[in-house]
Hints:
Number of domains: 4
Strand order of the largest sheet: 1-5-4-3-2
Structural class: alpha/beta
CATH superfamily of the largest domain: GAF domain
Low-confidence stretches: 277-283
Strand content: 15-25%
Radius of gyration: 33 Å
CATH topology of the largest domain: Beta-Lactamase
CATH architecture of the largest domain: 2-Layer Sandwich
Number of helices: 18
Amino acid sequence: MFFMRYDELIKYLKHTFEIHAITKSSISPKVTDVKLVEGQIQSWEEDVLYVGNTIALEAPANHPIMLCCSNELRDGDLPQDSNYSRISLNEANKIYCLAKDLIFEDIKAENALFPLSQAALDGNNILHLINEAAKILGNALILTDTSMNIIAHSTVFEIMDPLWEKNIRNGQCTDEFKQKVNSCESMKGWSKQDNDTIKIRLADDNQSKLISRIIHNNHLTGGITMIEHHTPISRAHMVQLPLVGAILYKRFVNDLSGSLNKSLHSTILYNLLDELDTAGKNKSIPKIDLPKQLKVVVVRYIYPMYNRHLKRTIMFELERIFPNGYSVQYKGYMAIVVDSINDNQENELKKMVSQNDITIGVSWEFYNIAQFKRYFNQAVSAIKLSHRIGAKNQLVNYTDYAIFDLLSNYAGKIPLQGFCHPHLETLKTYDRINGTEFYMTLRTYFQNNKNLSLTSKALFIHKNSLAYRLNRITQLTGIDLNNVELMHSLIDSFRINEFLNSSLG
């Protein structure tokens, strides 16, 4: 439970009322409640701020107390380390009401985080949680460890700050950023304060930041930063940010410990990938329980990613989508072995690629874990080949790229172009001379399973125009569009052309 400290509460009250500090403790206690009193007090609570006009110390406290009153008290009247401030005689009621309202606002701000706490208890991973927290706070969030590596960041709000954008891209805070932080006067004085949260603005910065320390098991373990861009920083944010940091870091630690439970399977999968080619040899694999039918789902960042924390969050997301799968990381690839992929899981994977700079490849089914390496390489090949033909940020299936895999491994003496049906070259030449689009029309026609309605929509032309084009194609080439074997030969030829014309071909 978050509670404002005495110094902080008095600071807010001073914005409205004239308050004079008479005695001040070296430690600012937390204020859990405010009581309006007149006359004598029989018992004193250490974490309550007493506000009144004629407070009598009939029963002196045996511990430090917090007091705002109009009484003139002597040093010996109060226990050592008590906090005592003088207020105007006629403002006690107003001060009490405002102090009570401030504490109520803090409780309300904390209660707003209940859905986030519940989501964490439900097992949602850190990427989901940090996005939910960003929605509640109304600003982008970045979670870091003590070495200023990026553990996770929200994606529901665009991060406009160029320094933080660069930090996230690198996976850790840059030297330029660290220098600006070290030269910030607010940051220099933060360690001397008793506050977990501080508002700062770096040199040449257009946006203020709210930063909160994260304490786990009584140790400083990291920090969470909120960028003020979409929603102005408020008192509620001061309450919420340290709590959000604690929730996220606890989820992060739990994810780490949970991943260790499947370490045996991960070790076996890694060893299967790391071994030399052992075709024809008997493989000794420890007995592990796996489904009879298996698939491999592999994730790869489109651009080099050296941030181990961000890679780990991707692994957590895969394990959340496939709670019964077994994951492994190998040479920049993140993989999980699953029994199947249902519609909901496929949609979750599509959401992953839409929110991250990644491509996900899926292998064919297989039935023997000893073949894991082969099917892992299928998913990797689907990813690489999709990049080669310019398809990125996608969920790709090896079925759609098997022909390209075959072509990329072709080592024959005859050039691949020699396996293309000559009718396609006829159409390409005619298109080039006459400005027509017969080659693309035939390709689209086959891609849509010879469906006239779908093909005309894909080409943005009328059905009659499509019928005319197909008629002209048959006139130019003599193609029989009802010949199944010829159709398959032409489709293979289109794929060979696509492969040869790919960006890296």
